[in-house]
Each structure stands twice: as C-alpha cells, then as structure tokens.
Amino acid sequence: MTPPPSALRPLASPVAPSQAPAGPAPVVSPTIVHRINQLPVEALDLALPRTSDSLRRETAYANQLAEQAGPLSDALHAAIPMLEDAPRLRRAALDLRRRVHNSRPAHLPENVVRSLHERLDATTGQALTHWLDTTRELTALRARTDSLYGEETALATERLRHTLSERVFAQGLAQASPHLLNHLTTKPLQPHSKAARSVLGYVSRAAVKTSPFSRLTALALDGQDVDGTGHSYVDQQHVHAWLAELAQDERFSAALQIEPNRSTRRVEDRPYLLTPSYGGPGETAWRTDTLADCTLQSKLLEELASWPRMTIAEALVRIGGGDPFGGFLRLLDTGLLRLVLPWSPTDQRPLRTLAQSLEAVPHPAAERTRALLERLDEQAAGLHLLSGHERARTVDRLAADIHFSPKGDPQPEVRYAVYEDALSDLPLDLPAGPIQHDLADLGRLIRPYIFRSHLYDWLRDEFVARYGPGGHVPDIFGFLWAVAAAPGFDGKLFQALQQDHAESGRPTDRAWLPVSASNAPPTTAVLYQIAANSTDDIRRGDHQLVVNQYNSGIGGLLARFRSGLDRPASDRGGLTHQLQSWIAALFPNAIPRQVTLAGDVNGMHHAADGILPALHWPGEPSYAKEDPRTAVVAMRHCPDTDTLEFTDPEGLALAPVYLGVVPQHLVPGVARLLLCLADPWVNGSRLCCTANPMDAPPAPVGEDIQSTPRKTHERLVLGRHTWRFAPEALPTPAKGEEPSAFFRRVHQWRVRHGLPDEVFLSVEASSWSPAASSQGKPLWLSFLSPHAIWAAAHHVGRTKGAKAVRLAEACPDRSSYWLCDANGRRRAAEHVSLLRWQRPTTEARPACETAAESAKEGE
Questions:
Q1: Average of per-residue pLDDT across 113-133
Q2: What's the count of helices (H) and strands (E) in the chain, helices before strands?
C-alpha cells in the first residue's frame, strides 16, 4: 500500500523549465483519443452580468468614498471643537465622522447639512457635499443591485433547469444519479438548494470536466468517423456478485465450475498462496490478493492440487462427509478453491453467458434466475437507446425485480447498475504537425525527470542475492512470493518508495539507467487541452497546449475504450490495432503478454482484456473456455546491464504489459512487484497542471492568499496560475444573511484579492486517502454565479479535515474552446497522446545526461 504523504520526506524544489536540461526527443504516437464534453460550455452561462456590472460600479463608488474618508474625517475632527455652542450640531458631526471613518451611509436632515456648511470652511463643506451625494448614489445603486440580483438569479435558475431538457444530458444523468433525475421536476433550483448543487455539479461535469462517463463526456479516436452511439452494459461488479451468490446455493452446483487455487509457491519449504478478497456493496470494484502462509493446510493443499477443473456438484462428491456443501463453502471462503469464470475475456455480455450456464440445472429456481439474468442483461444492452427518464425507470424496475424475486431465489449484495461508454457526435482530426511538435517539445523537457524506480533496484538486488550474478529462476512468481514473505518486506518497500519520492521533482542521472529488453522503455500518456480560437489557429501554431497530467504511456488509460473505438472507419484502424502496433514498437526484442488484474470484478479491466495474448497472473481466475491458468514465466539477471529480464521456458524474452486503468503505484499487494519489474519508470516531473497530493506544502493560516504564477514554455502551459488559502478565508453565508448581501460580500473579497471571475476549486485534506482524493477533485466555480458560489461554499464546508483551498485559473477559459458543434456552440475537449523514448542502455547514454549531472551538482 502507498504510504501516506505525511510519512514521506519533503519534496525537493522543482527546477524551472527554462533551467532544466533538455532530454532526447520522444516518439509521439499517431494515436490520439479525444474526450469531448457533451454539453456546450454555454450551458454554464449562469452569471449575473447586470448584477456584476452594478457591483463593479459599487466598488468604484466605494473606492471614491475610501479616498475621501481620510481627509474628510480629519477635517470634521478639527471642526468639532468649534461646535461646542451647538450641541445638536456637534453630535451630528461626531456621528458623521464615525460614519465616514467606517464607510457607513449617513442620513442627515437638510437643515443639519445646511448648518454644518455654515460652520465649516468651503473646502470641507464641498467634500462633505460630495461624500453625502456619493453615499446616496451608492445606497440607491445597492438597492438596484439587490433588485437585479433577484431578477437575474431567477433567469439563471431557469437556464439551469432548461439544461435538464437536453436529451444527452438527461441520459448521462440517469446513469450517474437516477434518483436525482426522478425527483428534479419538483425540486427548486435556487442557488442555496441541495438540488441546485447536485444539478450544477453534473452540468459542469458535462460541460468542462472531461472525465469519460456515459453521455456526460464521450469519446472519439482521432481521424475516425463518429455517430454519437453508445454501448451500455451491466456493471461487472454486479455480474461477479451474481456468480458468488449462485455458488453459495447448492441448487446451482451443477451449473458452475471450480478449480484449485494454483497460485501456491513454496518459500523456504512453506507453502504460500494468494487468497482473494473483494470489496462489498458500495466499495471499490477490486480484488485484493493477499499472500498467505498455508503451512497448516499443507496436506489439504497437496490433495487439492491434484484436482482437475470440475463442477461444484462433482467437487461435493470428492469432499464427501456429513456436510459436503459446507465443506465446499469453507474451501471457497479460504481461497483454496476458486470459481471458474463462465464467460470469456472478450465477452461483452458476461451476465448473459452466466445466465446460459444455468440451463444445465433442471430446477424452477434456476429457470427463474436464468430468465431474470437474461432480462437484466437484455435491457441493459438496450439502455443507451432510451431517454433519461426511461433509463432511470428501467434501472429502478430491474433493481426491484431482483429485490422482490421469489423467496429463496438468489439475491446479490452488490446493487444492480448499468454503465455506458458513448461515442461523441463530433469527429475530430487534430492538425498533426503543430501538436506533435508541442508534444515533442514537452517530451524533451520531462525526459530528465523520468527515472528508474528504486523499487526495481531493490528487487534486482534481492534477485542477485538469491540466485547470483547472471542467475536464473524458472518461476518468477516463486521469487516474488519469497520477497513478499521475507521479514522486513514492508519496511524495505516503504524505504524504496521514500527514495523515489525524494528523487522526484528534479533532473536525475537515474533517468539514464538501463533496463532489459522485456522492461518497458520510458513512456508517458499526456492528457492535455488546447486553447485556441479555431482549428485554423492551431494549424498556424497560434494556440497553447495545456498539460493537465500524465499517466502510463503503455496504453492502459485507453484500452478500456477499445470496444467503442474499434470501428475500422479510417486508414489508421481501430484502437485495438493501434495499441497493438504501439506496444510492439515498445518491445522490439521481446514478446508482449497482457497482465490483467481484477478483471473478474472490475469492468474497465475486463473491457481491456484480450488485446494481447495473456500472461496469467496466478491470482486471476481462469475462464471456462480456456485451459487452467498455469503461467510459466522465468527470469534471468543480465550481468552486462545489471538488469532483470522475463523469459519463457525456451529462453525468449517476454514483456508483461499491464493495461489496467488503476495506476500501478496504487495496486496493492505482491502484484505491484510484478508491475514494477515490467515497467520500472517513475515520472518525477512536476511539469503539469495537476498538483500531486503528496507534494502539498504546509497549511496556510489567516487571511493571506498564496499566489503561484502560470508556468509556461514556448506554447506549453505547464502550470496554471493558482491561489491557495485557509478554508476559513473563503466567505460563507452567515445565518439570516440576504443572498444578495452574500453575493456582494463574495464579490468584494474576490476583487480585494485580485482573483479572476472563473476558476476551478479543490480542497486539500489533512491526510491523504482515496476518499480525500475524490473530495479534492476540481469543482467549477464562477464568482459571477450564485449557484456556483453556494456550491463551492458548501463543498469546502463539508470536506472533513480540510487544510487548504486551492483555486486554479480556467485555462483554457470558456472562450478558448475551439471545437464547435453544428449549432456553433463550443465544446470542451481533452486529448490523450502516447510518448515513448529510446530504451536506455549502458552502451549509449544520452549526451544530455552530462547536463543533468551538472545541474544536480550545482544545486
């Protein structure tokens, strides 16, 4: 498990792009996947323009009064002693001075004003008249502002509700929150309401936040025709829950197959095997494989190892005794036996396949369950054709069918859910020349920061210590089991991660350490946006490329979308073909084999399975139509390069290729060791616009706001302008405060600190966790929109352990989104490109390495 940030040493100060040595140019893949928002950015036109203009005029008046206040206050102070003979007039002058000093309006009778003018000198009298006139105008203007606020807020509320009538948005909302969609018709959408916060969150997600989900953000492959179609399917976690539920019912024992857990390896003559555990309802769709010492079950393991694959019914005969099914359940729960998956790795409808397997069971409950599963699958497959409300009603009805099934029939614990991958209705073919030039420029900048992990070094040292220089082990999994079972494993792992963290943020000579033919070369996937006015501007190079973040460059971020992007509608072929070609180029001297983790329960990993021939992870269950998974993978040490190489039994180099969406540094357990050996590179650059939660500086205090300017290089934007402050510094609505007064107070706060109209807000928690990471995702915020302001204040207030609020400029801003639909409305888009560099060797070290070493020595 990744250690919490608080346990890591502080990160070194990053080197500015202009100071960093340039590395070698990368190869930029022609593959580009576009993530295109389905709502136009105009859906967020929720600002109050006239109200905001009135507030700006208020600010001008207030500034005038502030300039006048000092001299007028001093003049009144000097005049007050001369009013001793007129007590009433003196009291009025004292009250007036206090109001001038505190910038509060004064309401003086005309006769009092005339009397004061008679007693004051001409200059002071003129200043008093100007101040009183200005305060009256400001008071009237504030009343007008309040009136405008009410009128324009009502219009913005109508616009927000009108978005619900967008068919594509309602379809996506039905997938994301069917309960919300069903209740929106009667819910008010005033800025302070919970319903408004929820709707605005999804509208902003569908308009400017490019995370693929159903119809909120759709996909396109560069240069490929698109038609806006979708593919809907049952959540794989729900499918697995049905499989697990059926296996625990003896009536279905003839339909399902089991086999022994074949992950057992002996470490110092003690048997260790991987025992699986799955997240429950509401938890992450993942299987965690725990390495367990099974010495006490040695004899049972030996007996089970001889068992072939068989049905549960056949296994019950072998188990025997007074309660064979109870014995079977205990073997299943402890992980000594495991279920065989009835579907195939490329089966797009595994629930239907599971239903078909029940045809072998002549029991009324099996017939009812089979019909239910087929109905769940069939209606899920057609869900993408339905409107939003029809989708929500259909999913609710199907969930009710499960819940109210006949007593005694199986009911899985994981709720019924349907997901959808959608294609965009906008084709996109980016101008290749300028964009590839920018990405190559970026690649030269970040390459000196991409280094070989200390975790790889530790595993290599362990290998050499066990098998000697040039050593060979016929079973890589036996080696990994031995490392993970050794005393002090957690401490050594943590130490290696600390070393990686300390190395990040600066150019390093570790960037040029060699790897073997079966290890991945340095790669990265770049997620970026383009700020421009038009496609022609991009062709001319009149644009900016905004680097959002990085991911693994082997293809795991993209592989899950291949079913929708495999249409051979262009000369470049579908996504699967493009990924296969890219991976083949990564490993010219090794045979690539795909490693899938948690594909039985994680739909995104199941969707990516089958791109390459499999290298079976011992914890992954077998498929019914495949031979039992008995992967034979060897490893050898290469003395010339001091690296480790995977091989097959014949000695040919193998390359394990992980194409999952879960980043490998977040994969728990011993599987992480395999992934590090396969791809040992750490992208330690901080040259992107997404802050690393492990690099957060100390919490700010007081009212001060820390400002960090935008970071650029040529056409690249490598860091947005950001502002960071304590959570309590953000204005929040006071009890009983009028909404227009709160809006005014937020405006004054924003102007005082020089913040832009539109930003993205994120909250930093005091300790890192997956939940805190989710809460820290950027929230769209327009200071000209009451709906956005109330949502932001609520978001900050409900975040547990909040230590800082971070605002980032909207870059691109909504005027810089250049992709337009048929109606001329702008669409936000994010693009994903893959980069790779030459595999470092001991013979050929880049010339820029000397520059990197010199930069490090000069620190």
A1: 82
A2: 27, 29
Average pLDDT along the chain: 90
Tokens of 700: 């700010």
Determine the straight-line distance between the first and last CA of the chain, rounded to whole angstroms: 32
Please identify which residue in the block is written with the tokens 């405006």: 747
User: Smallest Cα–Cα separation from 635: which of 651, 612, 621, 623?
Assistant: 651
Which of the residue ranges 152-156, 352-356, 388-392, 588-592 would you say has the lowest mean pLDDT? 388-392
C-alpha 194: how far from its chain's center? 24
Q: How many residues does the chain have?
A: 859
Neighbours of 101 (CB within 10 A): 14
Contact 530, 538 (CB under 8 A): yes
Contact 380, 232 (CB under 8 A): yes
Q: What is the spatial distance between Cα 107 and Cα 119, in angstroms, rounded to a whole number?
A: 19
3-state secondary structure of 341: strand
Greater pLDDT, 526 or 116:
526
Sequential DSSP letters for 639-686: TTTTEEEEE-TTS-EEEEEE--SS-GGG--STHHHHHHHHS-EEE---
Strands 779-782 and 706-708: unpaired
Using the structure block, give the residue that is written with the tokens 């869900």: 383
Helix (H) / strand (E) element for 328: namely: helix 324-333
Whole-prediction pTM value? 0.91
DSSP string over 125-170: HHHHHHHHHHHHHHHHHHHHHHHHHHHHHHHHHHHHHHHTT-HHHH
Q: Which of 14, 291, 33, 51 is nearest to 789 (CA)?
A: 51
How deeply is 507 buried, as exposed, middle or buried, from its count of CB atoms within 10 A (0-12, 13-18, 19+)? buried
Closest C-alpha to 761, from 716, 724, 713: 724
Q: How sure is the predictor about 468, in pLDDT bands with cuts at 50, 70 and 90?
A: very high
Residue 781 has which token pair? 């915020």
**Four-residue CA torsion sign, 362, 366, 371, 375:** negative
pLDDT at 17: 65
